[in-house]
Amino acid sequence: MNDRIKRTFRTYEELVVLGLLGIPIGFVVGGIDAVFGRVLLAITDFRNGHPMQLIPFLALAGAVIAFCYLKFGGKSSKGMNLIFEVGHGEEEVIPLKLIPFIISGTWITHLFGGSAGREGVAVQIGATFSHWVGRKIPLKNSAHIFLVTGMAAGFAGLFRTPIAAVLLSLIHISEPTRRTPIS
Fold first, then answer.
1. In the predicted model, is pLDDT for residue 182 greater than 60?
2. Which among 129, 177, 175 has a CA at the least distance from the CA of 153?
3. N or C: the chain end with fewer CB closer than 10 Å?
4. How far apart are CA 72 and CA 82, in angstroms?
5. Which residue has the higher pLDDT, 110 or 140?
6. Could you please report the per-residue DSSP string of 41-102?
7. Which of 61-65, 78-82, 127-131, 160-164 has the weakest average pLDDT?
8. Is the confidence at residue 178, as pLDDT, over 60?
9. For residue range 55-96, what is the model confidence (pLDDT) as tens digits?
10. How much is the CA Rg of the chain, to the nearest whole Å?
């Protein structure tokens, strides 16, 4: 019985540590996503003011993005698929360089008139950063826990929907066999 009580206290202690570490991670992810979203709005306004000067270069911009991913991106070129592969245990690491690649690629795409979603970018930012931090914490499942909570923080940071983000992460954690795709 004494061993069971110790395990229970250890579990709660780990939950408190993870919760406290999640707060600054949430601030960082939310901040990155907020900057991403604000710059994206400014880029879209600029493009709307100069469509005829920018749209003709969309194909060239796409080729530059693809070249950069192929030449320098490595595994980060998998994007959201890499996030899901790590979540399912098929891959181990999400390279931090995914963040600048996904942000700059989306900004360039929007600048020249392309269509790219914001949601997946926000989720990838949150998942990448928080998983990176989680891998450095010597607690059981911290990388996976922070992967999921980072996805939620990314969603909340961009759309200012913290309750929806919490529900998204709770659904993901509570049903480990069923993964909810995020586009």
1. no
2. 129
3. N
4. 16
5. 110
6. HHHHHHHHHSHHHHGGGHHHHHHHHHHHIIIIIGGGGGTHHHHHHHHTTS-----TTHHHHH
7. 160-164
8. no
9. 999 999 999 999 999 999 999 889 888 988 888 888 888 999
10. 19
| Long-range contacts of 86-90, Cβ-Cβ distance < 8 Å, separation of 24 or more | 86/127, 86/131, 86/147, 87/127, 87/144, 87/147, 87/148, 87/179, 88/179
Return d(Cα 41, Cα 110) in angstroms, integer: 9
**Which pLDDT score is estimated for 49?**
95
Rounded to an integer, what is the distance from CA 26 to the centroid of its chain? 11
Cα(70)–Cα(77) distance, rounded to whole angstroms? 7
- Residues 126, 29 contacting (CB under 8 angstroms): yes
The structure tokens listed for 131 are: 């998983």
pLDDT for the residue 43: 96
Q: What is the pLDDT of residue 19?
A: 82
Cα dihedral across residues 54, 57, 59, 63: positive or negative: negative
Residue found under tokens 């911009």 = 61
